[in-house]
């Protein structure tokens, strides 16, 4: 090697930038909605990685919108306060005391922590919830469960658990156009005046649809959708997902995540991606490399 030749590490970085170029050009000016949650959110190093990814996206002309969860953190505070949690079919029953704690955690500590991480990474972010400027109007979730003895469907009251009825995107547009990243807590008010806790995946999907986002990313604690041999499935369509649920390949908590992806795609989002948030810089790997890093859901061609 010539004494003046570039170091191999520098050449490798150059190759990485060249590989990213077509994706930078393709996505410039587009909106990405990122649901940030899972245990990666509680890891300081992963949290810094995530914030750096968001700041980089904004710096290259993409408009990221962050929607975050906080289930484990809510559970921890409830335990510390001596408030017992009750679950029905995996869904937390949210009474008045639980709803108050959930809002404190989601719209308070977690929301501002993410904003602070983005600031430390050199970006500008503002933390809001679905309550702010009428961003999201909620409706109470109605669920049924089967009685184990008779198999008869029974209505279940989950308390102050809601889902988005409508989204007013104006506050997001205002922040985005000012160069600010919106960081959104999944809490909203219903027409009845009550505050509702909303599943973060569902909130992110509804917001992505309202924004006509190019991508919805759901950061989780798993690699993505796996086939029966444990291999990652990188490309799925709504009809393919229905078949995989029917044959038992897709089960459990992955089903509602994929239902959110399909609903977002049906609402006009170009594609939705399930990503492992525990992988360092998973967002950048998915967006700016040929191979990608997760399971992408798009409408059938």
Word description of this protein:
- This protein is α/β, with parallel strands linked by helices.
- It is built from nine helices and 16 strands.
- The strands form four sheets. The chain has an eight-stranded mixed β-sheet with strand order 5-10-2-1-13-15-16-14, with helices on both faces. It has a four-stranded mixed β-barrel with strand order 6-9-12-11.
- α2 (44-59) crosses α4 (96-120).
- The longest helix is centred in the middle third of the chain and has 25 residues, at 96-120.
- The relative contact order is 0.15.
- The model has no long low-confidence stretch (mean pLDDT 88).
Quick overview of this protein structure:
This protein has 301 residues and is of the alpha/beta class. Helices cover 40% and strands 25% of the residues.
Q: What is the global morphology?
A: globular
Strand order in the sheet with the most strands: 5-10-2-1-13-15-16-14
What's the alpha carbon Rg, rounded to whole Å? Answer: 20 Å
Global structural class: alpha/beta
Q: What kind of sheet is the major sheet?
A: 8 strands, mixed
Determine the strand fraction and express it as a percent band: 15-25%
Integer average pLDDT: 88
**SSE ordering:** HEHEHEEHEEEEEHEEEHEEHHEHE
Residues in helices, as a percent range: 25-40%
Number of extended strands: 16
Low-confidence stretches: none
Span of the ends, CA to CA: 49 Å
- How many helical stretches? 9
């Amino acid at each position: 090697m010539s004494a003046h030749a570039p170091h191999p590490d520098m050449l490798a970085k150059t190759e990485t930038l060249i590989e990213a170029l077509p994706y930078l050009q393709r996505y410039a000016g587009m909106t990405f909605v990122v649901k940030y949650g899972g245990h990666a959110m509680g890891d300081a190093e992963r949290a810094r990685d995530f914030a750096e990814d968001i700041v980089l996206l904004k710096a290259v002309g993409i408009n990221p919108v962050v929607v975050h969860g906080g289930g484990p953190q809510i559970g921890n505070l409830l335990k510390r306060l001596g408030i017992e949690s009750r679950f029905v079919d995996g869904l937390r029953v949210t009474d008045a005391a639980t709803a108050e704690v959930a809002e404190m955690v989601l719209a308070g500590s977690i929301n501002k922590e993410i904003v602070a991480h983005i600031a430390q990474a050199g970006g500008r972010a503002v933390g809001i919830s679905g309550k702010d400027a009428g961003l999201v109007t909620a409706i109470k979730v109605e669920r049924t469960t089967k009685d184990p003895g008779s198999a008869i469907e029974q209505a279940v009251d989950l308390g102050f658990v809601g889902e988005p009825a409508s989204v007013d995107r104006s506050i997001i547009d205002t922040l985005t156009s000012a160069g600010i990243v919106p960081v959104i807590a999944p809490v909203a008010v219903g027409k009845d005046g009550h505050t509702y806790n909303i599943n973060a995946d569902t909130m992110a999907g509804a917001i992505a649809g309202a924004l006509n986002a190019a991508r919805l990313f759901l950061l989780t604690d798993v690699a993505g959708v796996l086939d029966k041999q444990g291999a990652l499935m990188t490309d799925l369509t709504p009809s393919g997902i229905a078949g995989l649920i029917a044959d038992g390949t897709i089960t459990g908590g992955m089903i509602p995540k994929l239902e959110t992806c399909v609903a977002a795609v049906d609402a006009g989002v170009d594609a939705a991606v399930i990503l492992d948030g525990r992988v360092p810089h998973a967002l950048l790997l998915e967006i700016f490399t040929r191979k990608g890093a997760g399971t992408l859901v798009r409408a059938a061609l």
